[in-house]
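Data card: per-record layout.
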Amino acid sequence: MQIVGYETAPGEGPAALRVADAGTIDHITLAPTTELAYSLADRHCAGVDRGDDGHQPCQRPDAPYCDAHTSVWPCARCTGQCSKPLDACEEEHAVYLAAFAPDVFKVGVTRSWRLDTRLREQGADRAAHVHTVADGRRARRIEAGIADRITDRVRVPTKRRGLGATLDRTAWRDLVSDFDPIDEFDFDYGLDVDSRPVAETMLTGTVRATKGRLLVLDRRETTYGVDMRALVGHEITPGADDRDRQASLTAF
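The structure for this 252-residue chain is written out next.
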C-alpha cells in the first residue's frame, strides 16, 4: 500500500489519507480518537489517479511526485497580470485575511463559494472576508496590493509552531480595522493542546485532530504534529512503527 494523497474534508466529514493498493484507492480515516498503527517504508512518486481506470503507480524516486506527475496550478503566483486562463477565473472571487496563532497573518483569494472551505483547508484560526469581486484576475490584483504589507503565503512549519499558542487578538483587530469586513470567521479544530507538538513524520498513534494539512497524534504521552504532505509517496505496512521518536518533556 502507498499513501497517494490526503483529504482535509472541512465540513464534509473527517479528514482522511488516500491509499492505493493494486490500482484501487481506499481511505484511512483521520477522525479524532482513531487509533493508527502503520509503519512507513520507502518513499517514491505517488503516481496519478485515473478515476474510473484506477490508480497508476510510478516508481520514480522523486516524492511526493515526479516531474511527469506534478501538476502546476497557473494561479499559484498570479498577481492579476494574466488572460484568465481557467474557467474558474470567471467566477466571483473573495479576498480574505487569515490569522494563524500566535501572530502570523496572510492575504489570499478563492472563489466565493469555497471561502469557508479554503480557510479550513489552510488551518486558519480566524479570518475576515474583505472584498468580493467579479473574477479571479481582479481578486489577484487586490491581493497583490495588500501583499505589499501582509504575506500571501504561510508555510506549514510556521503553522505547526503555532499549535498550542494563543492568537494575538489585539494585533488581529488592529489589522482588520484597516478594512471593512463583509464577514468574519472564528475556527475551532478541537486540538486542545497547551504546548507545541513535536514535528515528526509517522503514522502510529491516536488522532487528536487535524488542522489544515497538519495531523496531530498522541503517542506515549507526547503529542506530534505531522505534515500530511510529507506522508504522500510512502509505502506503508500494517503494524505500529516502533522506531524511537523525539519525546516532549511531559513524557518523562
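Known properties of this structure: The longest strand covers residues 35-43. DSSP finds five helices and 15 strands in the chain.

See the next section for split statistics.
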